[in-house]
Specification:
This protein is α/β, with parallel strands linked by helices and 464 residues long. The protein contains 14 helices and 17 strands. Helix 1 runs antiparallel to helix 14 and helix 4 packs across helix 14. It starts with a helix and ends in a 6-residue tail after the last helix.
Length: 464
């Protein structure tokens, strides 16, 4: 009789033998930069040459779908239905990556060539998200090798447009609700709170990106001849921003302040670590006063200026420009009026005398906020399994601080969403030198094959 420990050992052997890194190297070698207009053939190549053969070796029936949105890349769907009475697990990954940023990596590394350096494995897509969905799919493979069946039904969706806002994903899910129906989503993206401890999160903060612009006149005018006579768009813009958030970053727009930091959420956040020893030092006097760091990043909204410009910063001259702009973003939690975000901003700027500040809403980076109760039976089951395997109590978050298209699963499909990330905060995702840590990847493989084993043996938590 096969055992849970034998399934774990099979996953360990797969990693320790070097085969896992060889498999990952092939995935990284395909430059699936969805932000580049010419990337569509590479996105399709990733699905056809790597994902489809992998799933079919695991006994999945597969189909590649065109994206209903011309701006997005294709989808791969796979399913292995063993028994209609079994619970059905849906899992997800995204095969696209951000731009490789070749020439900016340490030591002249090629972003699309996997490279080992001690415990670090470098390559674009290692952390986000190729390694993460490879771990989950190969964990299913290890379970099948050990038991010859999953003991549950499994569906897989791999998209190729997450890094450009998951264009078309919502429409695809609306069209294929029956096909994608499942009891739970168990998927992986984002970082662990601490590299050596498993993390579970059940939702994500939403994100709304917008541009503020002040356009007073064409061209620039000499600051000596016209200083004191012409309104300065950069000063107007700076003051407009200062009325959105105060000197410590506290949001000043009433409609942007959430209502969902309830006692149960505060309790769930009370013992969570925040920050990373290899990352920047947390600003203790920044953000909403009276909140803990965990409450600020997981339980509250945050406003940020991503970029701003007036004139020519690279070569300033003695002139007052006629134009200034800033690209801004609000990260928001459940309990925020999404439809009212931009109207509330417009009303607030007008009330403070900034009617000349125009608002342009951006489509990119728009994900809704979602959250599942940390006490959901699926969350409890996954957490208990991870604790048994790792020997450490997982960090359980009501939502990720970042954003991902979780609303497609939680709202469109209406299923519980449980995310088990396999990266860590210092992984440099979206930047040069993106990498994963070998110990984290190995630990994740052990955890996931054991989790799938537990579902195979025990079924859905509600049916116990």
């Amino acid at each position: 009789m096969s055992s849970r420990n034998e399934a774990i050992q099979r996953a360990e052997t797969y990693f320790d033998s070097g085969v896992f890194l060889k498999d990952l190297a092939r995935l990284i070698a395909i430059p699936t930069e969805s932000q580049e207009p010419h990337s569509k053939p590479q996105l399709m190549r990733y699905l056809k040459e790597e994902m489809r053969p992998l799933l079919e070796r695991l006994g999945f029936k597969t189909h590649i779908f065109d994206n209903p949105n011309p701006a997005g890349g294709p989808f791969l769907y796979g399913e292995r239905i063993e028994d209609p009475s079994f619970p059905t697990i849906l899992t997800y990954g995204h095969g696209d990556v951000v731009r490789g940023q070749a020439g900016n990596w340490m030591g002249g590394r090629d972003p699309f060539v996997l490279e080992e350096d001690g415990d670090r494995i470098y390559g674009r897509g290692t952390a986000d998200n190729k390694c993460q969905h490879l771990i989950n799919l190969q964990a299913l493979g290890c379970l099948l090798q050990e038991k010859k069946q999953l003991g549950f039904n499994c569906k897989v969706i791999i998209e190729t447009s997450e890094e450009t806002g998951s264009a078309g994903l919502q429409e695809f899910f609306e069209e294929h609700k029956r096909m994608l129906a499942a009891d739970v989503l168990i998927a992986s993206d984002g970082p662990r709170l601490q590299a050596d401890t498993p993390t579970v999160f059940t939702g994500a903060r939403g994100a709304q990106t917008f541009t503020l612009q002040v356009n007073l006149r064409d061209g620039a005018n000499h600051s000596g001849n016209w200083g004191g006579l012409l309104a300065d768009p950069a000063i107007i813009l700076a003051n407009a921003i200062s009325c959105i958030a105060d000197a410590r970053g506290q949001i000043q727009i009433p409609g942007w302040r959430p209502t969902s930091l309830t006692p149960d959420i505060r309790e769930a956040l009370s013992e969570l670590p925040v920050g990373d020893p290899q990352g920047p030092t947390i600003s203790e006097n920044w953000g909403e006063e009276g909140l803990t760091p965990a409450e600020r990043v997981f339980g509250w909204n945050s406003f940020a200026v991503l970029a701003m410009k007036s004139g020519v910063p690279e070569a300033p001259v003695n002139a007052i420009d006629g134009y200034a702009f800033a690209v801004c973003q609000l990260r928001y939690v459940v309990g925020t009026d999404v439809q009212g975000l931009i109207p509330a901003l417009r009303a607030h700027l007008d009330a403070n005398g900034f009617k000349d500040v125009e608002i342009r809403q951006e489509d990119r980076g728009f994900f809704h906020a979602t959250r599942l109760s940390p006490n959901n039976p699926w969350v409890n089951m996954v957490s208990a399994s991870l604790e048994e395997t790792s020997g450490k109590k997982p960090h359980v978050l009501p939502n990720l601080a970042g954003s991902l298209p979780n609303e497609c699963f939680a709202e469109t499909l209406g299923i519980p969403t449980v995310w088990v990330p396999h990266s860590y905060a210092g992984c440099s995702q979206h930047a040069p030198n993106e990498h994963i840590l070998k110990p984290v990847a190995r630990d994740a493989l052990r955890n996931m094959v054991a989790l799938f084993w537990d579902i195979s043996e025990n079924g859905a938590p509600m049916s116990r």
